[in-house]
């Protein structure tokens, strides 16, 4: 099972993925966590380029292609081998992030992005996508608080430095994607505290995995 977590900066994806993985393991599932970009040695080098605030002038098309390159390697090297072994995969961001950030927010043609995804990964999609949704104002405030406290590094703050309007477009893009594929997406209110968010994630997973109780 391939499950992705999506959301804007500060939505709590990383924390919730780790908590969810521990819970699923307690339920008897063999579970791994991964992320895009940066889940492989090659991917970590791509991640350093993409998230470095010094690269604020990175061409939008080049940015998108770097994400696609990381994804192609990630799926081939990590995700598909794990799936063949029957593992449940929890992934921090996937192709929906490219549609939301580089498509809806940057303005790259959505159809072009979908064609590239089809060509590189044969339109490989998650079984379930959990969208942790909250306002960009709240998300950015949380993200910068984490950076100020040292929980997140300034070396990966390129997107946090984008203007509020950019993040509003990202959120709107995510919600549009969820509207287009309601059978795959579950929208989680990420404005609540961590325990409440985790409870709602467990309910969503339990409805998707009938054998798992929240």
TrEMBL record:
Thymidylate kinase-like domain location: 5-201
Pfam families in alphabetical order: Thymidylate_kin
Protein name, as recorded: Thymidylate kinase
Role, per record: Phosphorylation of dTMP to form dTDP in both de novo and salvage pathways of dTTP synthesis.
Positions with a binding annotation for ATP: 7-14
Listed GO biological process terms: dTDP biosynthetic process; dTTP biosynthetic process; dUDP biosynthetic process
Stored InterPro entries: P-loop_NTPase, Thymidylate_kin-like_dom, Thymidylate_kinase
Catalytic activity from the UniProt record: dTMP + ATP = dTDP + ADP
Natural source organism: Desulfonema limicola
Segments crossing the lipid bilayer: none
Protein's UniProt keywords contain Iron-sulfur: no
Protein family: Belongs to the thymidylate kinase family.
Keyword check for rRNA-binding: no
A GO-annotated cellular component: cytosol
A GO molecular function held by the record: ATP binding
Entry's EC annotation: 2.7.4.9
Keywords per UniProt: ATP-binding, Kinase, Nucleotide biosynthesis, Nucleotide-binding, Transferase
């Amino acid at each position: 099972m391939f499950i992705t977590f999506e959301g804007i900066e500060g939505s709590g994806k990383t924390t919730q993925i780790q908590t969810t993985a521990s819970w699923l393991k307690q339920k008897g599932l063999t579970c791994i966590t991964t992320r895009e970009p940066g889940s492989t040695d090659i991917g970590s080098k791509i991640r350093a380029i993409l998230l470095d605030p010094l690269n604020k002038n990175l061409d939008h098309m080049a940015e998108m292609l770097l994400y696609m390159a990381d994804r192609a390697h990630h799926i081939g090297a990590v995700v598909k081998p794990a799936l063949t072994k029957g593992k449940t995969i929890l992934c921090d961001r996937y192709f929906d992030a490219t549609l939301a950030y580089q498509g809806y927010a940057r303005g790259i043609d959505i159809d072009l992005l979908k064609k590239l995804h089809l060509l590189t990964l044969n339109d490989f999609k998650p079984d379930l996508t959990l969208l942790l949704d909250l306002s960009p104002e709240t998300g950015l405030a949380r993200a910068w608080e984490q950076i100020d406290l040292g929980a997140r590094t300034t070396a990966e703050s390129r997107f946090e430095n984008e203007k509020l309007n950019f993040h509003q477009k990202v959120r709107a893009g995510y919600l549009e994607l969820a509207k287009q594929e309601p059978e795959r997406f579950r929208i989680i209110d990420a404005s609540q505290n961590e325990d409440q968010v985790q409870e709602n994630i467990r309910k969503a997973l339990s409805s998707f995995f009938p054998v798992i109780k929240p």
